[in-house]
């Protein structure tokens, strides 16, 4: 059909038009393909170690911008490096024998051992191991490690292309399995591209003043599609190799050009990545105490722009089947919300530990109210973790064979995170004291003029070096404010999106029937 339309259009054009189209499009395409091939060749090499990962990012030559300037090598940029160090642990930990069970899995496609971040869940056990793995990595980083978004995109597109083919008699599932094989074999990091910029939220995609405010297909060709738009808040965007695009919301028939899923290497011409500003990001330019956490406070987020980007058909997994967009969005959201008690539970463990140390260093650890507040922090951290384990344990098999967490429980887990992380942070501030917000620079500690005063007046319990106390207080500041809190609120969807799911999945009618039955109302 697509060839038929293209053939028809070509038959209506004069020879000069055809030659013009060939000379503009096809020459550009040949150049584009050649560039992609040359640039992409090195990233196709299997990434195994942290060093492989860093080298693959150096070789990517993608168009990354930080504060208006093009970044030639993301691995050398001080504001980007902490996030890269954090994501690198998803490679490094997978090589440690003691973590093999959590960090790796057996591919259902090849039978080979692969990094779990490229795996399709084959059982409830896989779902639970995912959550355990996230808590484990968070214990190493105290920060977001970013690779889960692409992991969830792979799983949600896998199970939805299967259902899509059943309904529409298409061949997306086979295409996607080939793409998945490439991801598993090369071990690339994929960013999950869901959130569009959305412009005027009261208007659907086709009614926006600028049609590009939702990512969409601008041209269908015999060899592929051309897309335009942008994806916002892309966690791990600048240090991933590819993006797996999905629609941002359920779509109607008139929005069919916006019902789109496809995979694009981030070094494809027309892809531009603009890194997002963060609270206290200058701290990342510091190397020592003032950095707070060498892995950054949160994952690095980017605005990823697609300026007329060509995507070959073998990397297109949804194109116009608007009736399947909502299901894909719901599945991705559930799979990502499943995570939050894992990673944020692990991050909370670090914050609880740091807060307990701050109390010890300043001599308040024995106070009953401090013990009580630390216990409350542990209770909140374990509550969010148990939600992630519960939605995984109640997971089930989808028609594709891939396993899927219980969506209602996954949503309540993420909803709890939007509240509990704020409360855990509030308690950390309460125990650690105002010094978290007023502590001098490391430079003052080391100053020949004022260093002796910092050492004298920031001293706590005898025998504890002031430097250690400052390190812990700076870590608490890093983990409990600004971007870290907002990420817990809006990452994987704002609280309102979880409440919408309660309306759909909460089965209020059944609950009313149970209440009536107990008191004998007919
Ligand atoms: Fe993974 Fe958590 Fe970061 Fe999301 S916030 S990418 S689930 S570590
Ligand atoms: Fe997130």
SSE order and pairing:
Elements: H1 2-12, H2 15-43, H3 50-60, E1 63-66, E2 69-71, H4 81-92, H5 100-103, E3 104-106, E4 113-115, H6 124-141, H7 148-168, H8 172-186, E5 190-193, E6 216-220, E7 224-235, E8 242-245, E9 260-265, E10 271-275, E11 301-312, E12 316-319, H9 325-362, H10 368-393, E13 396-397, E14 403-404, H11 407-432, H12 435-438, H13 442-446, H14 451-457, H15 466-479, H16 482-490, H17 495-505, H18 508-519
Parallel strand pairs: 1-10, 5-8
Antiparallel strand pairs: 1-2, 3-4, 6-7, 7-11, 8-9, 9-12, 10-11, 13-14
Helix pairs in contact: 2-3, 6-9, 6-10, 7-8, 7-9, 9-10, 9-11, 9-15, 10-11, 11-15, 11-16, 11-17
The protein binds iron/sulfur cluster and fe (iii) ion (FE).
Task: Give an account of the 3D structure.
The chain is an alpha+beta fold. It folds into three domains: 1-42, no CATH class; 148-326, Butyryl-CoA Dehydrogenase, subunit A, domain 2, CATH 2.40.110.10; 331-519, Butyryl-CoA Dehydrogenase, subunit A, domain 3 (Up-down Bundle), CATH 1.20.140. It contains 18 helices and 14 strands. The protein has helices at 2-12, 15-43, 50-60, 81-92, 100-103, 124-141, 148-168, 172-186, 325-362, 368-393, 407-432, 435-438, 442-446, 451-457, 466-479, 482-490, 495-505, 508-519, and strands spanning 63-66, 69-71, 104-106, 113-115, 190-193, 216-220, 224-235, 242-245, 260-265, 271-275, 301-312, 316-319, 396-397, 403-404. The strands form four sheets. It has a six-stranded mixed β-sheet, with no helix packed on it. Strands 5-8-9-12 form a four-stranded mixed β-sheet. α6 (124-141) crosses α9 (325-362), α9 (325-362) packs antiparallel against α10 (368-393) and α9 packs antiparallel against α15 (466-479). It binds iron/sulfur cluster (SF4) and fe (iii) ion. The site of iron/sulfur cluster (SF4) has 10 residues, from α7 and α9. Residues 144-146, 148-149, 235, 299, 339, 343, 491 line the site of iron/sulfur cluster.
């Amino acid at each position: 059909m697509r060839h038929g339309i293209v053939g028809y259009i070509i038959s209506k054009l004069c020879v000069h038009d055809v030659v013009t189209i060939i000379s503009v499009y096809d020459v550009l395409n040949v150049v584009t393909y050649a560039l992609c091939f040359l640039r992409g060749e090195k990233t196709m090499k299997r990434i195994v170690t942290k060093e492989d990962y860093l080298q693959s990012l150096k070789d990517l030559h993608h168009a990354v911008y930080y504060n208006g300037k093009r970044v030639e090598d993301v691995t050398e940029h001080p504001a980007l490096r902490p996030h890269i160090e954090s994501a690198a642990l998803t490679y490094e930990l997978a090589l440690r024998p003691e973590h093999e069970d959590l960090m790796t899995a057996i591919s259902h496609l090849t039978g080979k051992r692969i990094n779990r971040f490229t795996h399709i869940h084959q059982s409830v056990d896989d779902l639970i191991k995912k959550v355990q793995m996230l808590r484990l990595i968070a214990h190493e980083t105290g920060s977001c490690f970013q690779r889960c978004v692409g992991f969830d995109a792979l799983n949600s597109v896998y199970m939805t292309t299967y259902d899509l083919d059943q309904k529409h008699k298409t061949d997306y599932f086979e295409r996607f399995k080939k793409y998945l094989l490439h991801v598993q074999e090369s071990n690339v990091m994929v960013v999950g591209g869901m959130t569009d910029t959305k412009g005027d939220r009261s208007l659907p995609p086709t009614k926006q003043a600028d049609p590009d405010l939702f990512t969409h297909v601008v041209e269908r060709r015999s060899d592929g599609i051309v897309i335009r738009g942008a994806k916002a808040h892309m966690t791990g965007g600048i240090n991933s190799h590819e993006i797996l695009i999905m629609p941002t919301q359920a779509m109607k028939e008139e929005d069919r050009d916006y019902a789109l899923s496809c995979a694009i290497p981030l070094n494809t011409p027309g892809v531009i990545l603009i890194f997002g500003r963060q609270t206290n990001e200058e701290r990342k330019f510091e190397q020592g105490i003032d950095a707070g956490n060498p892995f950054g406070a949160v994952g690095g987020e980017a605005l990823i722009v697609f300026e007329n980007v060509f995507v070959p058909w073998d990397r297109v997994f949804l194109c116009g089947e608007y009736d399947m967009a909502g299901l894909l969005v719901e599945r991705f959201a559930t799979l990502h919300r499943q995570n939050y008690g894992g990673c944020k539970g692990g991050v909370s463990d670090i914050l609880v530990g740091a807060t307990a140390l701050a109390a010890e260093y300043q001599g308040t650890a024995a106070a009953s109210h401090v013990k009580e507040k630390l216990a409350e922090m542990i209770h909140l951290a374990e509550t969010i973790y148990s939600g992630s384990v519960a939605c995984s344990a109640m997971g089930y098999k989808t028609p594709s064979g891939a396993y899927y967490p219980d969506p209602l429980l996954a949503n309540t887990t993420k909803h709890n995170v939007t509240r509990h992380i704020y409360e855990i942070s509030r308690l950390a501030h309460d125990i650690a004291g105002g010094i978290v917000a007023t502590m001098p620079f490391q430079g003052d500690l080391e100053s020949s003029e004022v260093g002796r005063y910092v050492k004298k007046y920031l001293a706590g319990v005898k025998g504890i070096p002031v430097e250690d106390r400052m390190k812990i207080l700076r870590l608490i500041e890093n983990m409990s404010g600004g971007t870290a809190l907002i990420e817990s609120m809006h990452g994987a969807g704002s609280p309102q999106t979880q409440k919408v799911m309660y309306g759909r999945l909460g089965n209020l009618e059944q609950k009313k029937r149970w209440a009536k039955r107990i008191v004998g109302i007919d």
